[in-house]
Specification:
heterodimer; A: 17% strand; globular; B: mainly alpha; 2 domains; two-stranded antiparallel ribbon
């Protein structure tokens, strides 16, 4: 059922960024060498079941452990295991299986037992297919199955939120993901998920600007009384779990924990499509559509790429070489900076963004009209020229200055805290219960405060620092959360995130 | 020092690799090169001379002013293009119509007053920056322009210098500089002058030029200056209400920048539309000034001037849009802004009617500035009540 549009207070809509990926998907070549991390998405790191010299095929399970919270990992090519070693992967030593491709065939052997007529399959079989395909490790807390792929069992799920809001500066194209048959597949996927989570209510949150998609989905789902459709303002950080829960469910979020702790599972569209492909087509999740965005890319498209392909294989021919670029994973506000181009991509990658690393100084920079400049204020020409694309770069655009309490950070903050107040407390080393009371642990680290600050103060970093100091003093964030929520699966959640 | 020169070198790109930015700003390169050379030479001089070295903040400020920054972000990877320099320039842009109109009304001497204000305000700022070994902040660019606008047109230049120096030092620097001041420096300076030199600050008013090119070709309205009183004084002493249209378009006596009220309104709205100034405080202020006299007249039989006259007289509009909204000295919480706006309106009307002074706006802003931390604390206490 179509519900009225929803939004939240604060936030900021990133409009018109140059280098949005066109809704075209190109299949990337099968790489010669893949590096497969043994921790992908939600779950603990697994032990390799293969060793040096073993021959593997695409889709073969190379790591699996039903006893811990995890999902199986697959080889993504046909080849021979060259090495199993630990590599520094996103600040964490992660075991990797390195496989040299021997047969670059695009065929992927299917998982047994899949059926296009999924209604006939038993719940157990469906869950097994989802688990075996590896889809169940996607997103913040995975898809619950009876194989411990998430921290709660599927029966305990009260709400399932599937979202395609696109609130980041660069987003994967919704039109592409839900093109033609994909839309039907997507809805089948939602139905499958509803089947394995019988006590759940399904909420679909889609970008309110994509009128045609909302119209189509409304038509197709009008019969389903367990499904609600919400058009959501594409305002950053609407795509965050912390914002989806309050906007859609009108519930408080247990900041610092995951949505699964309150019985909510939040998935994005690609995960649901993965569920459909696993159950109805038996495809292991070893391919992924990634949006290649940003002005430092020659041609902004989507690519379909095997898990384990190195960044070099993806970017070498696509990135502009005239000027230095910064490559960022998934989000320009919070994403990791990808410095090592030998690192592989895994299941969780959805965007690779390259923007110019602009160190050069600009003459009278602050007096320029700013035809291509984005700003929270309306003080640039770009605000009046909606047809001109805005070009982001990594320059700070100004010197750091003391806070003038302009209040931009407070207005932009989606979780109703006052970043500059907290930052002042932390900088003066006034770290006590007061700042806890001011909600320092509610910070979801979306980075908007640092983005909008005209004094160029790294508010997010300072707030994080304050949180760390508070925890060092023995004030735990749990004090703010545990008394007000009935949380499930806390031990398991800690087990996964604290590793 | 090494870091400084490295920054300069970084600006020079290897030959034959023109970037987009260079293509766009080619016409400016000549000026750029001159400025860069000047800064480089001065930098060299400073490195040799121990005494000159103390002036490094001035050079740094110039360098930053002209060439922007070369620092890059960490996380988030992109940041807003807005910075304090542009923020302050927009306030100055919003004040430009008023400034130009004031030159027309009061003669070219206004320019001299502004220059003196900038010179001495800047001097105080620079002295403190050197003394503290910190960078020079852009705040005085706005203070230096607002301050002359709230002085009487015939103010002697030495009074301007004394006022702005006092304002910057005791309104801002003694509290720790930009961002830490409790009082608006311009208001602090103005209040000091009013109390120290009441004769100069409150007695000599003149009617503005209103014919032909007016002040654009005259230095000062001396020969046929008609000494008169401001609309507020006229109301207080003689009960004469100046026509609204005259007030709106500047045909009344008053401070340099407060009489061209249509320009002030446009400038204020410009800042609000640009999202640089929050609309709550000015709205609350103006609304109270309209409503309170009305209620007062009906409930306590006190003869307050009516709202529209209150708004269009004195420095109320300039105060409401440009001084009460100074982010540093006004409450940062939204309810706090409503409260401050309401209190400001209340105090202004009361002071104008009941006290011997007519400078209600100035005193109320000064008072509310002092109460700002308290208002914010109260709002926070209510908002973050312990559960």
């Amino acid at each position: 059922m179509l519900k009225p549009g929803r939004t939240f207070r604060g936030g900021y809509e990133f409009k018109n960024f140059n280098g949005q990926a066109r809704p075209v998907v190109v299949e990337n070549q099968i790489p010669d060498l893949v590096t497969i991390p043994l921790k992908q998405g939600f779950g603990t790191e697994l032990k390799s079941m293969v060793k040096k010299g073993d021959a593997v095929f695409a889709g073969q399970t190379i790591a699996r452990d039903d006893k811990v919270v995890s999902s199986p990992i697959h080889s993504s090519v046909n080849g021979v295991v060259e090495e199993v070693k630990r590599i520094n992967y996103f600040k964490r030593q992660t075991a990797m299986v390195i496989i040299r491709t021997t047969n670059a065939s695009k065929e992927i052997p299917r998982i047994e037992g899949y059926s296009l007529d999924w209604a006939r399959l038993s719940n157990e079989k469906i869950e097994e297919l989802i688990y075996l395909s590896g889809v169940s490790s996607l997103d913040r807390e995975g898809i619950p199955t009876r194989f411990k792929s998430s921290i709660i069992p599927p029966e305990e799920v009260k709400h399932l939120i599937v979202h395609g809001v696109g609130s980041e500066p660069y987003n994967i194209s919704l039109d592409l993901l839900l093109k033609d048959k994909n839309l039907l597949n997507f809805l089948e996927g939602v139905k499958i998920l509803k089947r394995i989570m019988p006590h759940s209510k399904v909420h679909l949150g889609l970008n309110a600007k994509k009128k045609n998609i909302i119209e189509q989905v409304t038509k197709l789902t009008s019969q389903l009384e367990w499904l609600d459709l919400y058009p959501l303002e594409p305002k950053y950080p609407q795509g965050y779990d912390e914002m989806l829960v309050p906007t859609i469910l009108n519930q408080n979020f247990p900041y610092g924990y995951s949505a699964a702790n309150i019985g909510v599972v939040i998935l994005n569209i690609q995960a649901v499509l993965g569920v459909y492909e696993a159950v109805c087509e038996g495809k292991p999740f070893i391919e992924r559509v990634i949006a290649i965005c940003g002005p430092s890319i020659k041609d902004n498209i989507h690519i379909k790429v095997r898990v384990g392909t190195s960044l070099k294989d993806i970017l070498a021919k696509r990135i502009k070489t005239e000027s230095p670029a910064r490559v960022v994973l998934n989000s320009l506000l919070t994403g990791f900076q990808l410095n090592d181009i030998n690192l592989p991509i895994d299941r969780t990658f959805s965007h690779i963004i390259a923007i110019p690393e602009k160190r050069e100084r600009e003459f009278l920079s602050f007096m320029r009209p700013g035809k291509t400049r984005d700003s929270y204020t309306r003080a640039f020409l770009a605000e009046m020229l909606p047809w001109v694309k805005r070009v982001p770069d990594t320059n700070k655009h100004g010197e750091e200055r003391p806070c003038v309490s302009c209040g931009f950070c407070e207005r932009a903050c989606p979780v109703k805290i006052i970043p500059h107040l907290l930052a002042k407390h932390v900088q003066r080393n006034l770290i006590d219960e007061t700042i806890m009371n001011y909600g320092i642990f509610n910070c979801i680290e979306c980075g908007l405060c640092s983005y909008v600050c005209p004094s160029k103060i790294s508010l997010m970093k300072i707030i994080k620092e304050g949180q760390d100091k508070l925890i060092m003093q023995g004030c735990d964030s749990t004090q703010c959360i545990l008394p007000y929520f009935n949380l499930k699966g806390i031990e398991e959640y800690r087990g996964v995130t604290r590793l | 020092m090494a870091e400084f020169s490295a920054r300069i070198i970084f600006f020079e790109r290897p030959k034959g690799v023109p970037s987009e930015a260079e293509g766009r700003s080619r016409e400016k390169t000549f000026i750029m090169r001159i400025i860069k050379n000047v800064i480089n030479n001065m930098n060299g001089l400073m490195q040799k001379n121990k005494y000159l070295k103390t002036f490094k903040p001035v050079l740094n400020a110039m360098d930053e002013f002209f060439f922007g920054t070369d620092k890059v972000t960490t996380l988030p990877h992109i940041v807003d293009n807005m910075d304090i320099k542009r923020l302050m320039s927009f306030v100055i842009i919003a004040l430009l119509p008023v400034t130009i109109a004031s030159i027309y009304f009061w003669g070219l001497r206004v320019l001299l007053v502004i220059m003196v204000s900038y010179a001495f305000g800047g001097l105080a700022e620079v002295c403190f920056a050197i003394f503290r070994k910190k960078e020079i902040h852009e705040g005085f660019l706005v203070t230096g322009l607002i301050f002359p606008l709230i002085l009487p047109p015939s103010v002697p230049l030495w009074v301007v210098a004394v006022g702005i120096t006092f304002g910057v030092i005791f309104g801002k620097e003694v509290f720790g500089g930009t961002g830490r001041n409790i009082f608006n420096p311009a208001i602090a300076g103005r209040v000091f002058l009013t109390i120290a030199f009441p004769n100069i600050m409150t007695m000599h008013w003149q009617m503005p030029f209103n014919k032909g090119l007016g002040g654009f070709i005259h230095f000062q309205n001396t020969v046929d200056a008609i000494t008169t009183a401001t609309p507020l004084v006229m109301l207080k002493n003689q009960g004469v209400i100046t026509p609204y249209l005259n007030l709106m378009f500047g045909q009344s006596a008053g401070c340099i920048g407060e009489t061209f009220r249509i320009g002030i309104i446009l400038g204020g709205l410009f800042l609000i539309v640009m999202r640089i100034v929050d609309w709550r405080l000015p709205l609350a202020y103006l609304a109270t000034v309209v409503i309170f006299p009305y209620l007062g007249n009906h409930l306590i039989h006190m003869q307050f001037a009516l709202g529209p006259f209150q708004i269009l007289s004195g420095g109320l509009l300039l105060g409401a849009f440009f001084m009460a909204t100074d982010p540093v000295t006004s409450p940062f919480t939204k309810p706090g802004r409503w409260i401050a706006g309401f209190l400001l309106g209340f105090l202004t009307v009361l002071i104008r009617r009941l006290s011997g002074y007519v400078e209600g706006v100035m005193f109320s802003i000064l008072l509310i500035n002092a109460f700002t931390p308290l208002i914010d604390t109260m709002v926070l206490k209510v908002r973050y009540k312990k559960k």
